[in-house]
Fold this protein.
Amino acid sequence: MSEIEKIAKQIVAKGRGILAADESTGTMTKRLSSVNVKSTAENRLKFREILFSSEGMKNYIGGVILYDETIKQKTFSGKTIPELIESFGSIPGIKVDTGAKKLAGSPEEKITEGLDDLRERLVEYYKLGARFTKWRAVYNISDKFPSELSIKSNAHALARYAALAQEAKMVPIVEPEVLMDGDHDINKCYKVTSKVLQECYKELFLHKVNLKGTILKPNMILPGSNSQKKSSSVEIAKNTLKCLKENVPSEVPGIAFLSGGQTEVEATQNLNEINKINNTNFLMSFSYGRALQQTALKNWAKNIKDTNDTQKIFNHRSKMNGLSTMAKWNINLENQISA
Ligand code: 13P
């Protein structure tokens, strides 16, 4: 097994998942402003360092996705952030796209950019300690979207990125995110996600990407956030598994879902349900941003000198999600926050 194949399996090994802490400075500023904390480089580091040095990292977090600013920062004790993450037995990763921009030809949709000078940036990130990477494409659902153009151009960019990441000896996380916004039903999400995934794997194949050394980061199959018709966890799990089984080649070792606007408990419960009835060979795990950080951030904002309580909350969320990768979560465990 090649090094990248080993790393891909290690990141999403049973019981573990990924902490997505790769919010761009713009997104992190929105998150911090929403809890009335000033978005300075120091505050962004402070919060992230609290998470990265939590006990929960050791057992439940196999990898952390960083942003360019963070991978170059040092902890208050002098370690680099990748060294801190490694010291907790987790693997540092890096977001390498430069964001979703207006798609020329269909300007209401987005195309993810960042291919220019990517080869050189990847070499630098490897030297800084990153062993895996992430690139996120976004697709909106409406009567006319996503267009063929958005599906094809984003799949092409994802595949070019993934091939370059592997050339640089890093695992690419391939993230085609079909957004939850809208009033569509679960079937529409199923159809759109299937189409998006098919095109992604067509391009990944064409670009000779070794699928065994990749991780897929998809959305779960959910009704739109404004849909009249809500779906149960069982329905979400069944649809998600069916969609992935039909559209993802079996060589892909692991699938790490994004939370995409689900509440913390919903994201955990749905993943638990997916693992209860998982009839595929994929390791089914998480790569959550908001669903791992939201409550911890709110708590930290009350007193940014407090580390302990914020870490307790993060440890709890990490544990709940870790348990859900083994189908061992249940709602009663949510009340048992321990040290
Ligand atoms: P959410 O879990 O908050 O959707 O973030 C995951 C992520 O990394 C989006 O790119």
